[in-house]
Amino acid sequence: MENPPHNKSQPHGAEHEHRPNSRTGTSSGTGAGRYAPSPSGDLHFGNLRTAVLAWLFARSTGRQFLMRVEDIDQQRSSMESAQRQLDDLAALGIEWDTKVIYQHDRYGAYEAALAKLPHYECYCSRKDIQEAARAPHAIPGQYSGTCRDLSDAEREEKRALLADTSRVPALRLRAEVSSFTVHDELLGEYTGDVDDMILRRGGNANQIGPLGSDWAYNLAVVVDDGDQGIDQVVRGDDLLSSAPRQGYLATLLGYDVPNYVHVPLVLNSAGQRLAKRDGAVTLREVLEDSSIESVIGQLASSLGYEGTTTAEGLKEAFDPVEFAATDAARSPYTWTNPS
Ligand SMILES: [Zn+2]
Questions:
Q1: 76-108 pLDDT per residue, tens
Q2: Residue 190, domain member (yes or no)
Q3: How far is residue 259 from each of residues 158, 192, 227, measured CA to CA in Å?
Q4: Of 25, 165, 300, 310, which is most buried with the most CB atoms under 10 A?
């Protein structure tokens, strides 16, 4: 699979100065994949499996592999957690090119991207949005556009009302489409809803983090992927429904839309998404009773590569086209404790 950039976008001409300034590794590949964990706790088997797949897809298609710490949620993220996650990934044998990017260093880039996007202030409370969603013709899960066409005088008034309670408005994209199609290597063409998504959250002005803005994940991830030259996004399929919104944002910002590879999640024995409450599921917990080889063995076997116990061995065995045709590429894997 050579992964030609496949997108429906019309890249705006002069935007290529956004292309990677970090493509200085030894690889002569034609693009980059990435893993982008949120540092709010230790990585568990499901996280590790997605990380391994992201690494395998990138390396087996001649790409660079980049690591990005998604610490945009300032309340829940910590540098200590980020370091533990990076140490765990390295312990598995995953390696990456160039230095790790942290979202907390990227706020200027998000601000610059915002300035290029058509957007408007939204004064709605959560309750307003819930009520609007119950109106006839409302589309479930989509913002109804209450604040899209307000007059300047109405905005003035609503802004003042929020300010009385120390609140600031959110900023929403003024979307010009209602759906967008992306390409997924495992699922084919995927079309999903696009609405006036939040670009920067509002809320209590006193509770906004020390970096001064509460950027929305959709904006941050698109700007980071675009600036890092990421053209292959491997991640859990719980994010599939976000891909059309992100693809559309990428297009508006003049980035190529990446190829997506949404992989099935790891489930617990009750069929729910694996989580920390499911017992000893983090790498550190599992390693109390078993070896790193046995963890890699279980990861490999969950991907259909029985008998491989090193990351290098897995990398030699992995073929993205072969993998895409297997059950492992389509069905969730149920986790059982290896010990
Ligand atoms: Zn609103």
A1: 999 999 999 999 999 999 999 999 999 999 999
A2: no
A3: 41, 15, 15
A4: 300
Whether 140 is covered by a domain: the verdict is no
Cα–Cα nearest to 58, from 85, 7, 87, 98: 98
Q: Which pLDDT score is estimated for 186?
A: 95
Place of tokens 């899960």: 141
Here the CATH number for the domain that contains residue 44 is 3.40.50.620
Q: How remote is the CA of residue 135 from the centroid of ligand 1, in Å?
A: 15
* Count of all residues that appear for the chain in the document: 339
Q: How far is the CA of 203 from the centre of ligand 1 (A)?
A: 12
User: Please, which residues have CB less than 5 A from ligand 1, an ion?
Assistant: 122, 124, 146-147
In a domain, 306, yes or no: yes
pTM value surpassing 0.90: no
Compute the distance from residue 59 Cα to the ligand 1 centre, in Å: 44
Counting the structural domains of the chain, the total is 1
Q: What mean pLDDT value characterizes the chain?
A: 89
pLDDT at 142: 83
Cα(138) to centroid(ligand 1), Å: 14
Q: At what angle do helices 79-92 and 45-60 cross, to 10 degrees?
A: 60
85 alpha-carbon distance from chain centroid: 16
Residue 149 Cα to ligand 1 midpoint, Å, equals 10
- Ligand 1 centroid to Cα of residue 127, in Å, is 11
pLDDT tens across 36-81, in order?
999 999 999 999 999 999 999 999 999 999 999 999 988 899 999 9
Going from the Cα of 226 to the center of ligand 1, the distance in angstroms, rounded, reads: 28
Q: Burial code of 219-236, b = ≥16 C-beta within 10 A, e = fewer?
A: bbbbbbbbbbbbbbbbbb
* Span of 25-29, 71-75, 172-176, 218-222 with lowest mean pLDDT: 25-29
- Residue 179 CA to ligand 1 center (angstroms) comes to 20
Report yes or no on 150 lying in a domain: no
* Residue the block writes with tokens 């002005």: 205
Q: Is the pLDDT of residue 150 over 80?
A: yes
